[in-house]
Please model this.
Amino acid sequence: MIQFLKRQKLFRRIKDPLTEFVRLEAFSGIVLMFFTIMALVLANSAIGESFISYWTNYFGVQFGEWTLKKSFLHWINDGLMAIFFFVVGLEIKRELLTGGLSSIKQASLPIFAAIGGMLIPALIYVGFNTQGSGTHGWGVPMATDIAFALGILILLGKRIPTSLKLLLTSIAIVDDIGAVMVIALYYTSEIDWIYLVYGGGIYVILWTLNSLKVRNISVYLILGVFLWYVLLKSGVHATLAGILLALTIPARASRNLFEFIGSNQELLVNLEAKTAELPNKPNEKFIQASVSSIESNCIKVISPLQRLEHMFHPWVAYLIVPLFAFANAGVIIDTELTNKVFEPISIGIILGLFAGKPLGIFLFSWIGVKIKLAQKPSEICWSQILGIGFLGGIGFTMSFFVSQLAFTDSEVLSLAKFAVLIASLFSGITGFIILKLFCKNQK
Model:
């Protein structure tokens, strides 16, 4: 029985990475909140201007005539955030192949909800910004910050059913797909076609390696760095290299779980028997060979996609995203900024996130269920879907990221960030209250 339970635990750990994803994202939301508050405190302290100007300092690398120099802020937003998008791409691919988006029945409700959660906020924003400097900002209120949203869910503890957490996660993943498409198709500068051709060549090599079942992840990562560089030079936003690379990573393990268990059991039995023969003089070569075989089995039973997600996700959740927030959330909140809060740009963002997100998620979910193209889990009520709709209004990381692409004027960018902070705060509080009222403690 003990062996069976151990096998089941191992099986769940290997086959259900979404549970680990939710746990990591939830706790990272708390870390993200801390660094956001720190950035706001420092930006509005006596060292505020120095804190903000620090991120504009340049550094880089140089070999002969070749040089690559960027500001700290650009290295974070264009460099480290490419790793963030790489992990997002791995999550998207996993969910499309084996997770909650792998079948029409499972994916229909999150797809309906996410489409509504992107379309309605964008339309609300456009309604307030048909002309002027804010016309490019319609992508800002479309985004959802899953780390913050799940961080609030964890504060509610056992009140929240697992199916509701997974629904919110699935909606956010579909939302990420939409955000990537918007960035690729709309928020792209002038194209340098030569570098884009280079990028296409690298991408063909990556897919060729995938088709040849090459599972050496170092090869993919090295080519991914080159892909990032040529996209940076091409005018296409460099972070998209992360998504593109993730799609080429092999998603199948070379050995299934039951072969893994059987092979390792045989190795351990033989190792135990050999050790029992000569307890005082163990065969070092045999031990080394057995341990190496077990290690090889452990590598082969987990796909390159899962290994890379497991490797990078903690770094993204606990370092890269908090660092992004620390560098970007430092808005100086003064009278001049607060007086602009009712301007079209900020109103469009605030209403788009705070009203448009929950309205879009709830309304499109309801329509999908009513026309029988989507199925609502029986343990989830409509009030709870409204609650996670408000949590979807926490735009933060992705909204900040899109703001950087949409607005070049520093004052307009500060206003957009301030509006995202206001909308995210009210959305989070409202979602928390609704879910606390309509979610009972789970046994």
Notes: The chain has a mean pLDDT of 83. The beta strands are 58-63, 66-71. The radius of gyration is 24 Å. DSSP finds 18 helices and two strands in the chain.
